[in-house]
Every structure is written in structure tokens, then in C-alpha cells.
Design goal:
It is built from 3 helices and 13 strands, in the order αββββββββαββαβββ. It has about 230 residues and is of the alpha+beta class. A hairpin with a 5-residue loop joins strand 3 and strand 4. The protein is globular and about 40 Å long.
Length: about 230
């Protein structure tokens, strides 16, 4: 009898997982540009912004030529953030002829709430959350999945590029955030996944109009994870 109850419980969990995964897609249109000579110290642009169509759903990340500004894309809004003294300056429109040395971005047909973004007390926790979500979506290893999270952060440590080999690191506490990024298990170097992880994630802090690369984070429970909706 107990064995039968266990089987019923497992069946219910499987059905719940299948229901959760319904209506999502494992691949969305993606662009990935980088200068292959970066390791040799060449940080010239690999693509001009004029050649990139920024879609309303697009999320992504990168750096402008010379690693002078951090690039974040969140729901089609461009953040170009650079250091000015001890402060940060944000622009939302690229100058004519301006380009990116790295730009990785994806624009799903639409976003759909996947579930709660609970248990994200670290960068490891964020990667674990996405691993589980992609598994629930029944994606194979070829999946390239953009994601976003809206939540309140207890703390987030993030950075912006500040020239070749330099970064400005910031820690923000008790702020509303949007976390955006790309998940991939393959072609990790070209897609600039964080070493040892299946994700590259950026944070947007709307109240401060800033954004940058996530190094560490601790999110309050109750946030929402959004994944690409199927057409």
C-alpha cells in the first residue's frame, strides 16, 4: 500500500512538472558577437550598434569597444554604463558608429512567468534555479535560454568594465532588481558563460538607473522567474 502511495506521489510530481513546462521554448533567437583577438589585447568592436536590431523583449550583455562601457539589455532597453570618478554614468542610446567588442543577446517571442525565484541566496543558487527550470522545460543540451527575474535583493555585488583588464565593483543592498541573462550548456566560451556555470547574468537596479555584471547576489524569496514563451 505504501509503495502504491509513493508511485501516486511520483506520478503527481511528474504531471506537475510537465504542466509547469508547458508553453515554454528551449531556444529563442540569439545573437553572439565577440572579437576573437581579445586574448591578444585587441578590444576593438566586433559589431556596430547600427547593425543590431534591439527587440522589445531582448535581454543581453556585453562591453563596448575598448571595454569602456558595460552593456546590459533588459526588455529592449539599452544600458551603457561607465565609471566617471567614483560615480557611474548611464546612457540608453549608442552614439553613431559606436560598437561592442562583446554582445550576446536574445529576444524571445514573449515572456511568461515560470514560477517563484525562491532560494537564490548566492550565484550558485541562481545557477541551480536555472538548471532546474531548464530541466523542467525538458530542454536538451543544445538549449540557449534567455531568462529574467524580478525580485528584491538583500544584496547584489556587480561590476562594470573600466578599460582593458579593469573593472569597477559595486555592492548594492536592499534594492528592487531585474536579473537578466542567458543560459547555455554548450558553446560557453563564445557565449561568455561565467566559468564553471551555465549562465551569464546582469542586474538592473531601476531606482538608480544602473546595470552591470553580477558577481554575487542574495535575493529575497517571492520574486518571479520569467522564461521564453512558446509561439
Amino acid at each position: 500500500m505504501k509503495f502504491g502511495i509513493a508511485l501516486i506521489a511520483i506520478t503527481h510530481l511528474t504531471l506537475a512538472s510537465s504542466a509547469l513546462a508547458a508553453g515554454f521554448t528551449c531556444n529563442s533567437p540569439l545573437i553572439a558577437h565577440d572579437n576573437p583577438n581579445m586574448m591578444k589585447g585587441d578590444f576593438s568592436p566586433s559589431v556596430k550598434f547600427d547593425a543590431v536590431t534591439i527587440e522589445p523583449t531582448m535581454v543581453g550583455f556585453g562591453a563596448t569597444g575598448g571595454r569602456l562601457q558595460e552593456i546590459t539589455l533588459a526588455d529592449g532597453k539599452l544600458f551603457l554604463v561607465k565609471r566617471e570618478g567614483e560615480s557611474l554614468k548611464t546612457r540608453h542610446k549608442a552614439d553613431k558608429g559606436e560598437g561592442a567588442v562583446v554582445l550576446v543577446a536574445s529576444a524571445p517571442a514573449a515572456w511568461k512567468a515560470f514560477g517563484k525565484a525562491d532560494g537564490v541566496g548566492s550565484f550558485d543558487g541562481l545557477n541551480f534555479l536555472l538548471d532546474n527550470a531548464v530541466d523542467d522545460m525538458k530542454c536538451d543540451d543544445s538549449a540557449r535560454v534567455p531568462f529574467k527575474i524580478t525580485a528584491r535583493a538583500n544584496s547584489v555585488t556587480w561590476s562594470v568594465v573600466d578599460g582593458p583588464g579593469k573593472d569597477k565593483v559595486v555592492t548594492s543592498k536592499d534594492v528592487d532588481v531585474m536579473v537578466v541573462g542567458i543560459y547555455s550548456k554548450t558553446d560557453k566560451e563564445h557565449l561568455h558563460m561565467v566559468k564553471g556555470y551555465n549562465i551569464h547574468a546582469h542586474v538592473v537596479i531601476p531606482a538608480q538607473d544602473v546595470a552591470g555584471h553580477i558577481r554575487e547576489l542574495n535575493l529575497q524569496d517571492g520574486g518571479t522567474l520569467y522564461m521564453p514563451a512558446a509561439r
